[in-house]
UniProtKB/TrEMBL annotation:
SUPFAM superfamilies the record matches: DNA clamp
Residue intervals of the DNA polymerase III beta sliding clamp N-terminal domain: 1-120
The name this protein goes by in its record: Beta sliding clamp
Transmembrane segment boundaries: none
Keyword DNA-binding: yes
Any single Gene Ontology cellular-component annotation: cytoplasm
Length: 379
C-alpha cells in the first residue's frame, strides 16, 4: 500500500472513524483503525462490536492495500501534524507502516488483519433527514438520557418514524425530552422504531452535522441502526426494550404558566446553585412579576436572586417549586429559545418547559419539549 493525500481530510476522516474506537478494547485488535486504499480513495474505519464508523476521502493511491494501525496513536499523529505538507502513507514489508509529512516520519507496527471482525453494513435506507436537523435534535434530547449502565434502556434515545416525521425521545426518569424533525421515506417502511445508545447516536450525528442529507436504515432482524452520507457511514446496535409513551406523561391542563427570559434564568440558576451542594435543589418562587431563586440552608451557605417573570395562575396566588439545578440547566440550555414557558400543574407534579421566540410565540409542534420532575420539599 502506498498513497499520498492532504492532512486536513485525513485528520477529519481519522477523527470521525475514531468515534467508534472503544476506550477499553475487549481484544487488542479492536484498538486499531483500519486503512483501506483502493482506486482513488482512502477509507478509514473502526469497530467495537457495538458501533462502527467509516470515513472516506480522496487520495492519490499508487498501490492499494489494507492495514490495521494503532487507533489512538494515529489520532494523536493526525491531530498534532501541522503545515501544508502532503501526507505519505506506505506499507513497508509486512508489519510496518510509515507516515511522512515534510521532515517528520512515523513508523507504526501493524496489527493482524485476520483477527479483525467484518464491519456491519448500514443496510437499505428507510428514509432521509437533513444532517444539521438530526445533529441538533439528537444533541437536545441527549441531555435527558440516563448514564446508569445498570438501566440500559434509560441510556438510549428512542427514534420513532410516523407520518413523515422522526421523533427522538430520551428520559432518565427525572426528566423527559422530545424533539421532532422532518423525515422523507425512501422505502416502503413508513413507520418504525429503534432505541439506540444516546452517546453513540450523539457521536454519530456529529459526523453528519454538515451533510445536506443523511440516510437512515432502521433496524431489521439484525438489530442494527445504519446511517450514511456522501463520505461517512456508521452503524450501532440497538438496545432491547422501549421508553414509556411520552404522550401519556405530558400534562395537558395547567394550574399556572410562567414565562421567563432564558438567558437571565440560566445565569440566575448558576449563581444561586453555587451553594447547592450535593445536588440539593434550587427553589423557584413564582409571583406575578418576579421569579425569586433561593438555595442553601440556614446551617450552611445561602443564596438568593431574582429576575423578571410573567405568572398566570388559576388562583392568583404565588407558588414555590424546587428543581435539581443540573437537570434544570440541561433543559434550559437544550431548549435554546429566547424565553421559557413553564407549564405548571402543581409543586410536586411534572413541569413542562417549552421555548418561545422574541415575540412570545411558541416555537412550533416540532420544537423541543422538556418535562422535568420537581424535587419534593420537606414541610
Amino acid at each position: 500500500m502506498k498513497l499520498r493525500l492532504d492532512l486536513a481530510p485525513l485528520a477529519a476522516a481519522v477523527a470521525d472513524a475514531a468515534r467508534a474506537l472503544p476506550s477499553r478494547p475487549p481484544v487488542a485488535v479492536l484498538s486499531a483503525i483500519k486503512l483501506d486504499a483502493t482506486g482513488s480513495q482512502l477509507t478509514v474505519a473502526a469497530f467495537d462490536y457495538e458501533v462502527s464508523a467509516e470515513a472516506t476521502t480522496d487520495a492519490d493511491v499508487s498501490s492499494g492495500g489494507t492495514v490495521l494501525v494503532p487507533g489512538r496513536l494515529l489520532v494523536d499523529i493526525t491531530r498534532t501534524l501541522k503545515g501544508k505538507h502532503p501526507i505519505d502513507i506506505e506499507l513497508e514489508g509486512s508489519s510496518l507502516v510509515s507516515i511522512t509529512s515534510g521532515t517528520i516520519r512515523y513508523t507504526l507496527h501493524t496489527l493482524p488483519q485476520e483477527e479483525y471482525p467484518s464491519l456491519p453494513q448500514p443496510g437499505e435506507a428507510s428514509g432521509t433527514v437533513t444532517g444539521s436537523d438530526l445533529h441538533q435534535a439528537v444533541a437536545q434530547v441527549a441531555a435527558a438520557a440516563g448514564h446508569d449502565d445498570t438501566l440500559p434502556v434509560l441510556t438510549g434515545i428512542q427514534m420513532t418514524v410516523t407520518d413523515g416525521k422522526l421523533t427522538l425521545a430520551a428520559t432518565d426518569r427525572y426528566r423527559f425530552a422530545v424533539r421532532t424533525i422532518d423525515w422523507k421515506p425512501t422505502s416502503d417502511t413508513t413507520s418504525g422504531q429503534a432505541l439506540v445508545p444516546a452517546k453513540a447516536l450523539l457521536d454519530a450525528s456529529k459526523m453528519f452535522a454538515e451533510a445536506e442529507q443523511a440516510d437512515l436504515a432502521l433496524p431489521t432482524s439484525q438489530g442494527v441502526l445504519g446511517m450514511s452520507g456522501p463520505s461517512r457511514s456508521t452503524t450501532m446496535r440497538a438496545l432491547d426494550g422501549q421508553l414509556p409513551d411520552y404522550k401519556t406523561l405530558w400534562p395537558t391542563e395547567f394550574t399556572a404558566t410562567a414565562i421567563v427570559n432564558r438567558d437571565e434564568l440560566i445565569a440566575a440558576v448558576k449563581r444561586v446553585a453555587l451553594v447547592a451542594e450535593r445536588s440539593t435543589p434550587v427553589r423557584l418562587h413564582f409571583s406575578p412579576n418576579v421569579l425569586s431563586l433561593t438555595a442553601g440552608s440556614s446551617d450552611d451557605a445561602q443564596a438568593r436572586d431574582r429576575i423578571d417573570a410573567q405568572l398566570d395562575t388559576v388562583t392568583g396566588a404565588p407558588l414555590t417549586m424546587a428543581f435539581n439545578p443540573g437537570f434544570l440547566l440541561d433543559g434550559l440550555n437544550a431548549l435554546g429559545a429566547h424565553s421559557i414557558q413553564f407549564g405548571i400543574v402543581g409543586p410536586t407534579n411534572p413541569t413542562l418547559l417549552n421555548g418561545l421566540d422574541e415575540d412570545g410565540n411558541a416555537l412550533g409542534d416540532d420544537a423541543l419539549t422538556y418535562l422535568i420532575m420537581p424535587v419534593r420539599l420537606s414541610s
